[in-house]
């Protein structure tokens, strides 16, 4: 566990009062989580897939005191959530939901008024980072410093107009083009100087992250691009005492991979290769069809196996694995991604075997509960004075951000244990 994640105050303030959830990127994932929360509030649907709402903690000396997480730790109530966001294309959450086609008309009609009320603010957007999108609803400010200040103003306006006690921000925007950190990302001073000189290495998601942390708003990054996983943002988060987390929601094929791989490892079965390919037809798929944006996603997806298999312990079993990941943009599928995995394993005396997985999933249906949980848990962390990188939230990410030098374990089971251990330490009653 990160040292900082342990910094809990003995008496955690309650989670009552309004919590504003700000989502840069009102697309498929954002509109699906908002719609789901509205439907749950009306008693129309259950929050399936949400650990914060459905999972239990085993408390007491022998673990026999089993309580729902939402009853045991002081989380914000779903009735106290208010949503806001920014988007260069969608006008509001209803528009985003209809365009992305994730939810049926019947489901949307029941909550259409509420969804229409979540109006997208004008985005900080630069097509250089997402070439496949043509943004129309964009702030006409050339200076990156002015853009950051405008976002800070948006945040404060949202806070006061909606009478929010607290806010969190979760990046649900498109995956930005691949980049390595550079000098401008070293310190807060370097980053602020870069904002003022319009440094080319500063992407829009980083401007949102800066604006959030400066406004004391916890931030999580659901996409694989760099935003808070930069030294300057970690410095700022510690300075402002703000929790941050990232990156890239763990859904679909990677979710299955991090469920399967620990199982194979547990039986000491060898792995020779893992070929993963997808077809996906939503706007995310279209953005990822560009090689620069795919490279960002590929880096995040390829990293997961090594930390689970630990080839250094068993080089004969895991030292020679061909791991390949492909995403193919195929419009007829929309948000309903189909992922195939061809897994080449070997067993006793080296005899080879093959496993095939065909997962017809719904990307945003898998991602939406992660956004809700992250919002509630980051708010909980902030109220408990836990600042900087929150490694205990690794459960939600493909490429979990590290606070220190500990090795990240990508096994979903190890991550789940760690999540629950921290939540158990925050139980108040
Ligand atoms: N759905 C999943 O299972 C999943 C899993 C992991 C990661 N992600 C990531 O989550 C993000 C959202 O996915 P999605 O399916 O909702 O995609 P989407 O394309 O439907 O939505 C992204 C939205 O971001 C907007 N956007 C782009 N640049 C922006 C900016 N600078 N400011 C504000 N808005 C901006 C776009 O206009 C679009 O509406 C993507 O980066 C995706 O890679 C999704």
Written account of the structure:
- The protein is an alpha/beta fold and 429 residues long.
- It has two domains: 4-249 and 364-425, NAD(P)-binding Rossmann-like Domain (Rossmann fold); 252-360, Dihydrodipicolinate Reductase, domain 2, CATH 3.30.360.
- It is 39% helix and 17% strand.
- The chain has 17 helices and 13 strands.
- The strands form three sheets. It has a seven-stranded parallel sheet, with helices on both faces. The protein has a four-stranded mixed sheet with strand order 10-9-11-12.
- Helix 1 (28-41) crosses helix 16 (363-383) and helix 9 runs parallel beside helix 10.
- The longest helix is centred in the last third of the chain and has 21 residues, at 363-383.
- The protein is globular.
- Residues 1-12 have low confidence and may be disordered.
The Cα radius of gyration reads 21 Å
- Contiguous low-pLDDT stretches (5 residues minimum) are 1-12
The protein's oligomeric status is: single chain
The biggest beta sheet is recorded as: 7 strands, parallel
CATH fold type of the largest domain: Rossmann fold
- Structural class based on helices, strands and sheet pairing: alpha/beta
Tally of DSSP β-strands: 13
Helical stretch count? Answer: 17
Average predicted confidence as pLDDT: 93
* CATH 4th-level superfamily of the largest domain: NAD(P)-binding Rossmann-like Domain
Number of domains: 2
Distance between the termini: 23 Å
CATH architecture verdict of the largest domain: 3-Layer(aba) Sandwich
> Helix amount, in percent?
25-40%
Tell me the fraction of residues in β-strands, as a range: 15-25%
CATH class of the largest domain: Alpha Beta
Secondary-structure element series: EHHEEHEHHHEHEHHEHEHEHHHHEEEHEH
Gross morphology: globular
Widest beta sheet: strand line-up: 5-4-1-6-7-8-13
Ligand names: nicotinamide-adenine-dinucleotide
